Amino acid sequence: MEDKKLNTSIEDRSKHIQTSGSKLVVKLNIPTEYCDKDEEIVEKSQQDGDLQVSKESLLEQIKIVQEELEHRKQHTQRIAELSRAVEEWKADFAKALEKIQDTFAFVK
Question: What is the pTM of this model?
Answer without folding.
Answer: 0.43
